């Protein structure tokens, strides 16, 4: 029976690697270390909540590495820390609710759009104040603004569609 459990466990590991690899690739795309993607993948695929110590044992990473990465994942809205009164351990659970995931994704894109729209606003104001001869820069800013304004509209449409589907 133990051999069957081992075989089932190893095939389960083989299947899980696709999601963990996707989490690692996501981390790389965002400029994070592989460890953050690996920890996110482990958390997403865990049957139960995982303590900081569990994650240290599973990964072999230092406690500080796991702690800082889990704090970042929590800040990104990908995991949540569960506080149990009287228990000093840090316990983590993945965010798997579809509405929460969608909201987090849209919020992230929204923040990126707002960041660049703010920079475009400030650039336009400075160009206008200086009566700059940098016509090409003004044209570039206008082109970028169109792209970001379209992005805003797409996000609004997705949010409205998501809201209507939840009614």
Report the order of strands and helices.
HHEHHEEHH
The residue-averaged pLDDT reads 86
Strands side by side in the biggest sheet = 1-3-2
Largest sheet: 3 strands, antiparallel
Radius of gyration: 22 Å
CATH class of the largest domain: Mainly Alpha
Structural class: mainly alpha
Distance between the termini: 48 Å
CATH structural fold name of the largest domain: Arc Repressor Mutant, subunit A
Q: How much beta, percentage-wise?
A: 5-15%
| Low-pLDDT stretches | 1-8
In DSSP terms (H or I, runs of 4 or more residues), the helix count works out at 6
CATH architecture type of the largest domain = Orthogonal Bundle
The CATH superfamily of the largest domain turns out to be Winged helix-like DNA-binding domain superfamily/Winged helix DNA-binding domain
Beta strand count: 3
Quaternary organisation of the protein chains: single chain
Helix coverage percent: over 70%
Judging from the principal axes of the Cα atoms, what is the shape? elongated
Q: What attributes does this structure have?
A:
three-stranded antiparallel β-sheet, Arc Repressor Mutant, subunit A, 167 residues, mainly alpha, 6% strand, elongated, 2 domains
């Amino acid at each position: 029976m133990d051999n069957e459990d081992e075989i089932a466990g190893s095939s389960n590991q083989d299947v899980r690697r696709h999601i963990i690899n996707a989490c690692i690739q996501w981390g790389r795309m965002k400029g994070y270390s592989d460890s953050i993607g690996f920890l996110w993948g482990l958390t997403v695929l865990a049957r139960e909540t995982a303590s900081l110590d569990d994650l240290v044992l599973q990964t072999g990473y230092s406690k500080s590495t796991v702690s800082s990465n889990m704090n970042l994942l929590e800040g990104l809205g990908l995991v949540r820390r569960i506080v149990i009164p009287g228990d000093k351990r840090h316990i983590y659970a993945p965010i798997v609710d579809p509405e929460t995931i969608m909201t987090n994704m849209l919020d992230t894109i929204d923040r990126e759009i707002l960041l660049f729209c703010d920079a475009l606003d400030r650039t336009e104001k400075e160009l206008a104040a200086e009566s700059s001869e940098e016509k090409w820069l003004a044209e570039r800013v206008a082109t970028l603004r169109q792209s970001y304004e379209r992005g805003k509209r797409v996000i609004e449409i997705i949010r409205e569609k998501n809201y209507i589907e939840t009614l």
